[in-house]
Amino acid sequence: MIASLLERVARRAEAADVLVTTDETLALSLDDGAVVSAAALSERGTVLRVVREGRVGSAATSDGDVDPLPAAAIAAAACGDPLPLLLPGASPLPPVVTHDATTATLDVAALTELGLRLAARVRRDGRRIAVHLERSVGSVRIGNTRGVDAGYEASFVAIELVVQRTADGVIASRHLATVDVPDDAALDALATSVERQLEWARASASPPVANGPVLLMPTALRGVLVPVLDALVIRGEPSPMSPLVEGLEEPVLHPSLTLRDDPWLELRPGSRGIDDDGVTTWPQLLVEDGAVLRCAVDLETGAAAGRPATGHGRRTTFGRPHAAFSNLLLAPGELDLAGLISAMGDGVLIERLAGTAGLGPAGALHLPVALGYRVQGGEVRGRVEGAVLLGNAFDALTAVAAIGRDREWVGSALLPPLVLERLAVAGG
Amino acid sequence: MLDRLLEALRHSRADFAEIRYERTWVSTVAWRERRLELATVATDAGGFVRCLQQGRGWGSTTVAHADDLVTRLSVAHELSLATRPARPVALAPAPVRDGCDVPDLGGDVRGISLEAKRRLVESLNGELLGFDRRVVDSRVAYRDAVTEYWYANSEGTRMQGVRPDVQLAALAVARDGGTVERALASFGARAGWLAVQEHEERVRAAARQAVSLLGAQPARSVTCPVVLDPRLAAALAHEVVGHLCEADAADAPGGNLAPLGAQLGSPRLTIGDDGSVPGLRATFAFDDEGTPSGNTLLLQNGVVVGHLHTRETAARDRARPTGSARAASWRHAPLARLGNVYIANGSGSPADLLREVRLGVYACDIVDARRDGDRFAFTAGHAYMIRDGEPAELVKRVVLAGRVADLLGAVDRIAGDFRWHDDAGGCTRGGQGPLPIAGGAPHVRLERAEIRGVAP
What we know:
Number of strands of chain B: 25
Distance between the termini of chain A: 58 Å
Distance between the termini of chain B: 62 Å
Oligomer: heterodimer
């Protein structure tokens, strides 16, 4: 179908590419050990992009009928701006493992059994336990008029464990995403994390009155990193909001921060050998010792900015092309979690933030804390309710007091806990 | 298409089966700074199938192609048989309905060229960048959609209709030295091309707001009287009261459903959800289970008097379906969702509410609204200090936070200037969203509320 579409536009366009994605997902919800709902979801998307008279246009469909796409894409190109878009040529793909055959065979019974094994690990009187499981298999295929004809199969397992302690209403949760079927060690880690959250939240405490250090667990750190990761993606002209300047030798973040993007990691959901623009991927150092070495850019934005694409192109069927990271790895420190808490002395430990919508311009943070704890005398004293994290993400990441040793995957980011000094926690 | 759905349903062996099928035409134009970022057209088509066997839970599938309806109904039935819920799903009885909803498309966007849409967005972007030299970044996005919609179930109900939607959003970023501020304006309607004309002043207001914030001081943390403008008040009604009244909210751990009869707030507060107000973004003749929409009172004089129901929750709670079963697209099952949420009108003018406040905050616009259990945090777009009954200096970084009960109990006066808003608001819940919503409210005064600013 890709070849046929390319052939249909060959005489009317200088260049074209076609991206076809498929996905088959099986989703189950377990409530207190019983399957309460089951769904089988499938989707296929086709995007045709053409370059005609130096202008770019695209059209997409989730329908099986792709016949209208060539005319629609060429009409879109007619109203586009001139753009010197050069589609990539074919090149050998790196051998990246994105698919696991066992995952692809997980059926309702196997997923149920996986969910029950996880629920059994945290089952206690006075708890309500929900487990949501998804198994996806899919494919990405891209072809263009310069000879690219490549793709990969992908598999994915996602598990969310949510436990509510009925006595005080405290909710603990953890999420896991992998390419292969999670083993007992992975399930143990989920359960251990949830138990720790519930234990630390047993008592209530007030946040300190004065500003003090804030220990961000990996899930919370992911939220605070949003402005920084946004600034590491080129979307047009350099953003006036970003203090991160690529290529400066001096650090603009704390010298202890080193961030890498690795699309070649085995069995990670963010991995891929080719991006959605048809550009071959490669591991890249983004931030080294606090200095920004490289920003990510997709093919179209790069063409507008006069920069080569970095292999980070993402194109959903109905969204705009953009750059997105694959697997982000923040370098670990040396202290374990107990050591971090002890070294922090007095402050607030934040497990989860309530979303990232409270991110302001230039890195300003006003993020409600979904689950956080007061730390006093180097020990966790109890949960802090109704607090708001305030400060500036860029500024805070210039004042790193300590980095933890034990990293966790949060989506496609492998992050350590981090102690930051220039954040404040208000209320409670 | 309706005939194909009905024919497929005849093959289902499930006790109950339903199919919702949609075909959507979408066009999008996005401008960023001085560059056209996107001009594209797309078609999105597919269906959602649900089956229910007595004593079991829902089995669901999506259908990418209408040719697969019978097969996917069979899969959905098998999935329903695989469930073992402690409390089996039942459905409230519903009369068999046969309906058609084709509103005035107000200039069908499918007949407007992409070039014309580009010119509209380019012009609005020019309004932003030309407003003031301190406006250094801009984004303007236009999106339109027309959805053809078909629904049928094994009880014989059949519905079809057309659902138009247009959205405009403009973001202005202003900079002065090291200070950067931004402001957003948006518009959304269940309408067509005619509705997105003449929004230049709305866009200029965003630029004006971003520039004004450059000179504003961050708010200080303070507990004082707070007057909410109608936009912020409507967000409060949606987030703090509305979500507590979605009847399926109790299904997940941590979900809170306000019990009927509970005194949730001030006796001055009456809140409802009306899916039948003409022209609003969450207005539909019928919901995604075929139930007609209507006005549901949620809070009357501070007391919980109603919940929003699907057929499933209505059966569970021995209530009636309220026409609130909505899905974000054909990829999702319907949930009990908020639509056009309002605070009932009071009396007097906004000036009357300010006049009695010696020192307070007049909080305007909404950037973010969150509730977590019995706590909430709202971030206002901007605010003014109130001094001796008059709005005074502009302040920014205003977070209104505290306990839900304290907030709702603190409402001491409601003005008589009710209005519905026409911004392109959306709500995300259960992984579905943003679902188009609308809100309406008058000015609302809180006798005492906690402002959390950056400054202590």
